[in-house]
Design brief:
Length: 220
């Protein structure tokens, strides 16, 4: 899967958008702490003064990229509305798209500890979107239960939802901090997807398991 897979199309006409696109690619590749504003400006073919006109600090760049991620996450959740709520493929597709979204903004999760030091203003937005997305995931699981695709006992639901959120969002940080992985590719994305699938599998119907298996076999 390419780095830009499933990234929402954006107008590249404005200098601000081009700066954000370049910063995202560079941050994903090497981490914000190893990328200078001079390199970002050079990538966009502008001078640093022009970059500072749009973003006075690297923190503001990070916050703007997080705002992009937040908007894309909200838009992704909205795709479930109006979809076939009784089809296992609807939810398998959502899972795939969520992982693609995290992949496209992977520096936000892979480098989270360092980012908080670089951009303290990131703490509250991260908490806000985390809370909103956990509610959205809970709603999606509720729809799946209503459709007979998954059965999670009430006593286990909160723990399962929490673990789903942790694994599906912070798998990149785990690989970096715990396993020492510094280079990320499709193999690491597939690993994260499989971890989340293993959390779901004990509660899924036969139809949902078939959709999950098809998801695992599909091309990244």
């Amino acid at each position: 899967m390419s780095n830009d897979a499933k990234r929402p199309a954006r107008s590249r006409s404005s200098t601000r958008d081009r700066i954000l696109d370049a910063a995202l690619d560079l941050f994903n590749g090497r981490g914000p702490d190893r990328v200078t504003t001079a390199e970002i400006a050079e990538s966009v073919k502008i001078n640093e003064g022009n970059l500072y006109y749009h973003f006075r600090t690297k923190e503001l760049l990070v916050l703007a990229l997080f705002a992009r991620f937040e908007a894309d996450a909200v838009a992704l959740v909205a795709t479930v509305d109006g979809a076939d709520e009784g089809a296992a493929e609807t939810y398998a597709g959502f899972l795939r798209q969520w992982f693609s979204l995290v992949w496209n903004y992977r520096f936000l999760f892979r480098d989270l500890v360092g980012l908080v030091a670089l951009a303290p203003g990131l703490v509250e937005p991260v908490r806000t979107i985390s809370a909103a997305m956990r509610l959205a995931v809970a709603d999606i699981i509720g729809r799946m239960q209503k459709a007979g695709l998954v059965t999670i006992p009430e006593s286990e639901r909160n723990a399962v939802l929490t673990n789903l959120w942790i694994v599906s969002t912070y798998w990149a940080a785990y690989l970096t901090l715990q396993e020492g992985v510094s280079e990320f590719g499709p193999q690491q994305l597939e690993w994260g997807l499989q971890q989340v699938s293993s959390l779901f599998r004990p509660y899924l119907s036969a139809e949902a398991i078939a959709a999950l298996d098809a998801l695992a076999k599909s091309e990244m």
